[in-house]
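Hello again, I could really use a second opinion on something today. My current little project is about how a certain protein chain folds up. You're getting the sequence in one-letter code plus the fold written as tokens. Here's the protein in full, and shout if anything looks odd to you:
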Amino acid sequence: MKTILWMLGILVIAATATVVFILFFWKGEPEARLPFSPQAISAHPPQGTELRKELQNLHKVLAKIEPQGQYIVIDTHANYAYLRTRDSILFKATCSTGSGGELLDSTTGRKWTFITPHGAFKIQNKLVQPWWYKPDWAFLEENEEIPKNPADRLDPNVMGEYALGIGGGYFIHGTIYERLLGLNVTHGCVRLGSDDLKWLYDRVRIGTQVYIF
């Protein structure tokens, strides 16, 4: 039994590593195929009924998490945004992501950390000429008084011409600071240059998967 569990552990680790590789690094030719497949495993039948069932369950999990069609990948370390399929890269652009900086409100003790969240998301909405609803930290950062009138929080200038919402108040959007693209300078959103943003906006739909790492 210990041997079976050990083998299962190795296979789970290998499968997880393969999924990460495919999502973010696999740049094979269009004819390339998933290197970790049921056909490959069946060539080396597992020993034991338990292990065989676990492998079947693993295949089902992999099938669910493998993206279908086009999906977006955001590399927050190198600051690149991709639109790709399983087999090919359709688009690559320099972006900016979260700075990792922190802001502390000395009066209330509130603290904000400006990072771009990692994980799997979806495009939830597509906006044209978006207005930014400035949160409290945006005023504290500029040593300005937090307004009581919600209308005073609206800024039509900083998000560019388009925005793709991924939930939680985070967007892929434009910037008036294009000279800073490629640097980790944002408060958590993903910034693109105007031409790249327009290209991406025109080609993705609501529901498109977004993977950020």
Summary: The longest strand covers residues 89-98. The chain has two domains: 2-65, 71-212.
